[in-house]
Amino acid sequence: MSSKTTRRAITTVASLILAAAAIASTTAAQANEPGKGASPAETGTHHETDTALADAFNHVDRNTAWQQTSKLKLNFPTYHTEGIAYTQDHIFLSAVQITEPTVKYTAPQDGYDRTPGKGIGHLFVMDRSGNLQQDIILGEGDMYHPGGIDFDGTNVWVPVAQYRPNSSAIIYKVDATTLAVHKQFEVKDHFGGIVLDKQTGHLVGNTWGSRRFAEWNLQGKQLSTWENPNYFIDYQDCQYVPNAKMLCAGVTNLPQTPAAGGTTATYELGGMAMIDLKSHEVSREVPFQRWSTAGHVATRNPFKMTADGNHLTMKVAPDNGEEGNGTEILTYEADVAPAK
Known about the structure:
This protein is mostly beta strands. The chain is built from three helices and 25 strands. A hairpin with a 2-residue loop joins strand 23 and strand 24 (about 310-315).
């Protein structure tokens, strides 16, 4: 072989090696991009540009004219509803079936204020018309109470806790497509709601009555914890909102006036709050007083909100399966003033 031919062969081989390396590098980079082989939860990073919901919610106030636009009756036993999440193909609804109620102790025992009770944790999977497709049973032992849930674009995250404060919980990840269930980790304390922060890839949960928040990595290592400075409502169901925010809704049961029954009767105060996951501050908090068929405030438990520009749509399911007309998914809509 001539020296020229040898040089050409070496150059050709070198070019092929460089090209292969470039392809491998590109493939590896794509595998680490959200939506290209790895979910945001797996990569721990996510570039977000859709701030429509955060922007629109910043203009919600007590005078916002919410209108109920639809009511979807669920025709299967739903027990006590807790959280709701929407994917392209499914509606997910968490609920707890109580088989033995908890009983308050006269004095705390082993750090608990009540018996564990017994129950069954459900994650109902429906089509978008509300037809039940699958009932996923979640929980172990005394941990049977699913809480508020959230969908990160790939997985539905579900905390299942004991039905008492200062207890324990399991954090589950459910593949929204295959419905495969993965037990992510266990934590000390009752956590009744969870979201995945797509900017950090970390999970954020709230305890009984939403009095405290905690942040974990996906292996369950607690990274931070902070107290909730607000006592307006107890957050029941939350969702992640770009960028690095958490939108929650819930209820507080307040005593009535003496003429209306006093401490033996309660008034349900509902509301919504946007929480900044970086500063841990509540950036906006708004009451919400619309009522379900059974007479519950609409934000009592399951809650999710979307935005199309300045048009907001809220989905809630406040009634238990045995109340009123059974569990109904209520839709409320409102237009807010555009940002100036």
